[in-house]
């Protein structure tokens, strides 16, 4: 018997094999395509989370730079894929967060008109190192993933082929505000989890310094170390509304141009002629980034009895706990932090970086309080031009009599400026109106100082009295200020070596003292002393005319409230329809005359701080032509003539004291005279003629002893 073959069981086996193959192929395809796509979405979402982290990180750094606080910043370094029962994931994603050296930020071509920060801006530039913070992922699937970077107040993505837009705006420049947020320290972490570091304020930006271009033909520039291109920064600044290449001063955009810098940097060119508010904060990340030490000393406040010093770091911010030493010339008792004496050492700044130093019951006169953060000014040479040292004059009044010679002992001590003038010949000039000796350093390098000592009761000359000499600035009066004994005529002498500058000399004997202002200039170097006839603006505030500081006021006009204006003795007279001088401080030296010539035309003298017009003449020749002198601080018009014609008024308005002794104020032809002082009014032995009235208003006292009102009304 023959049987037929049966192959049905084989068919089942073949089907099973085919089905298994299909499953394997499907799983392989899923593993090869679906799993990577899903993992890519996980990686993409992680990258978006990192972007959010960096937006927060950028905010943390900027906030920490502005306040004395420590804030945490977190970044998710990596991610893990979802678990899969049948399929295989690659290892978890890791990432690296680290600081990287970026370079040097520099603010160049700058100067400042602020007294308290002139030591801060040196060599026309400010420069600081800074870092970036960078995250680099190691994704398994996502291709061409960017590094995420924070630098110079901007967070952005950087791809291999370049920048691809920012995650935040920039705040480096905002109108006229320039805010540097520097990052210091070293930090690096790699892994899957969350990286956290503390952004601590190494130097919080608590002070602002106003800067402008230091020359009329130069722009303030900001050199920014960066991994971005010039075009990238142009786009960033344009998006934030800060780029204006047209010089349009009606908008709030002041970046004139963006240029290529040296190496990896760009240069932001600011509009010329503007004043910018500069703040600098330093944030520490990771290790390093130590608190900066004391960098310079400045005076932030002074009164008739005290001076407040402030210690600042290299970022122009206050330093607490810094050491300061102080003394005073001529010697009197100081007090600070419970300590008293003519010299105080080891004083410590408070939380604001400040130390108030007070004078205890001094006699009337002018005192110079000197302080240093690295020397003892009582025993070491004092140089006010050093940034580590600062001084301030304190004018002490007695019973409202105004400043004068200090007399608490048996003697009257007086610098004999006339004798110094005679001994120095053409190289030395003495001006009694403002008690100043002007020395021509191109002719001599030493000047003979002469002091007279008499008995304070009898007025007789006193022999064999020891006289101590001193100065507030040994960089100008460099030597010879030691001690001498009066001769039989009651005269003590000393030979003083001088270099260009302005200083105060002191002579002290038996508890009494006198001060003398000394100005040393070179007649061949544009110094402006001794009848040069120059007017000049003291742009660098060194008290001496330097090259490029001459100004022309022949039209009677000057308007720059950020600089001091000097019109030297014997300067050419100015005659104009209207005279309007506006400056920070105005000094019109003797034998200068300003005259307005038209009806209704005025003379207006305005100073943000003080006015000194000792020995000068201001007069109007037309009808209804007034003279107005205004100062935020004091006004000194000793030996000055101010005169108006028909119905012309004279007004003097000071936030501080007004001193007009031995002056002539003449508004006798239907004019009114008004003096208004926040402090004292001292107008002794003057001639005041106000036909339409004389009014004195003082926050302190009024001393008009010996003044003649016979030509008009009395106050």
UniProtKB/TrEMBL annotation:
Record SUPFAM superfamilies: Invasin/intimin cell-adhesion fragments
Big-1 domain residues: 274-383
Keywords assigned by UniProt, alphabetized: Membrane, Transmembrane, Transmembrane helix
Segments traversing the membrane: 12-30
InterPro entries membership: Big_1_dom, Ig-like_fold, Invasin/intimin_cell_adhesion
Keyword Transmembrane: yes
Superkingdom of origin: Archaea
Protein family per UniProt: Belongs to the intimin/invasin family.
Protein name: Big-1 domain-containing protein
Species: Haloferax litoreum
Lineage of producing organism: Archaea, Methanobacteriati, Methanobacteriota, Stenosarchaea group, Halobacteria
